[in-house]
Design goal:
2 copies of one chain form a homodimer. Chain A has 232 residues and is mainly alpha-helical. The first copy, chain A, has one domain: Arfaptin homology (AH) domain/BAR domain (Substrate Binding Domain Of Dnak, Chain:A, Domain 2), CATH 1.20.1270.60. Chain A has 5 helices and 2 strands. Chain A has a two-stranded antiparallel ribbon with strand order 1-2. In chain A, helix 3 runs parallel beside helix 5 and helix 4 runs antiparallel to helix 5. The longest helix of chain A has 69 residues. Chain A is rod-shaped, with a radius of gyration of 29 Å. Chain A starts with a helix and ends with a strand. Chains A, B: This is AH domain-containing protein.
């Protein structure tokens, strides 16, 4: 059937509305995966910034001891770097929560619906093959086709029609739930990402901590280098 | 002479105060070089953060067009990232100015004094060699040493004494000027680094721009990826 379709032969069942929704989802998954990739890259670079700030803070602290004539200058630079490290770790917690949730959305939730879509597309191909078979038999000269062959084809056609229609229903429902879920998840994550980023980059440690509390993000350990943020 | 000294033979001219100053300088150069290395690493990681924020801002902008139900959420995240990029480029300007100036201090100014110190140390070695020679001759039996040989040794000793004392004076003066210069340069750079960092990480774009103006830092081009900040 796939080959007939490729050569423009055999008719194809097309559900335009569903096809559009499927194409939209596939495109959306690519775009969200791109945002996920960028957010992960940002988290990784930002984590290296925080690590370097920690080392720089220590170097400034040492020099504030050794350079009495520059004690004050080294000292306030040390304070600033240490403060940035402290808040940076909180922001990293928010960023890791963001990427982890988008990862689930992209690579688990969307992927699950795309798997149902693949099954639906395979069922559509089989259904159309049996449909075209039976149509060819019905169009052919009646005397050359034994009744039992027609019956058999009819039976196969009905079975695959049922299977196809069930999967079409599944896809429809999954797409609807996925879309509701996506909007809910992204609304929350984009709000978290924005509030945490804004709070950090305006030096508002209180608002940053409050944002993490609001989104129920717990920081595991301030010093572990592995992705270490619990999700809830 | 170096070998005699290593074996504990031959006397060595030691200027304790100068030696201490020289050791302090050598140690300080190592420490400042470490700060320079960290500041460069920080600049490089931070520059990658800014680049990723730029790409993420664009991705958010695209999604704010394509997701009407999340238009607002994507939109304000896009705004935030774009703002951070704009200010981030200004902070990078300050950081590049900081590293470039510390680099000059460490690898040109301090290095120049250290070269004079090397020459001084070589001259000290030669001076002590001729000093020990003539002392040996003067202690030896007078009749075995021809007058012209003694005179020649005396002449060489005087020459190297003059050279050594001149270089000792040079080192002393250079150390004094270097120290004054270092305190002046570091005071300015640490103030710049602190003010620019504070302004950026409190989201104070006006203060950030003002800091760069105060330190006469001009940003070459916002988009060039190469180190592109003019120094004055």
């Amino acid at each position: 059937q796939l080959i007939s379709e490729k050569f423009g032969k055999g008719s194809k069942t097309v559900d335009l509305e569903l096809e559009t929704q499927i194409e939209t989802l596939k495109d959306m998954q690519r775009k969200y995966a791109n945002i996920l990739r960028l957010a992960r890259t940002l988290t990784s670079h930002f984590s290296q910034v925080v690590q370097t700030q920690r080392a720089l803070g220590e170097a400034f602290a040492e020099q504030s001891q050794r350079n009495p004539e520059l004690q004050e200058e080294f000292s306030y630079n040390c304070e600033t770097q240490r403060n940035l490290v402290k808040n940076g770790e909180v922001l990293l917690g928010a960023m890791n929560f963001f990427t982890s949730t988008i990862n689930t959305l992209c690579n688990k939730t969307m992927e699950d619906t795309l798997l149902t879509i693949k099954n639906y597309e395979a069922a559509r191909l089989e259904y159309d093959a049996y449909r075209n078979d039976i149509e060819a038999l019905q169009l052919g000269p009646r005397e050359t086709t034994p009744a039992h062959k027609l019956e058999e084809a009819q039976k196969k056609f009905e079975d695959h029609k049922t299977k196809f229609e069930k999967l079409r229903g599944d896809v429809s429902i999954k797409l609807k739930f996925l879309d509701e879920n996506r909007v809910k998840v992204m609304h929350k994550q984009l709000l978290l990402f924005h509030n945490a980023t804004s709070a950090y980059f305006t030096g508002n440690a209180t608002a940053l901590d409050a944002t993490l509390k609001q989104f129920n993000i717990k920081l595991k350990s301030a010093n572990s280098s592995a992705p270490s943020w619990l999700e809830h």
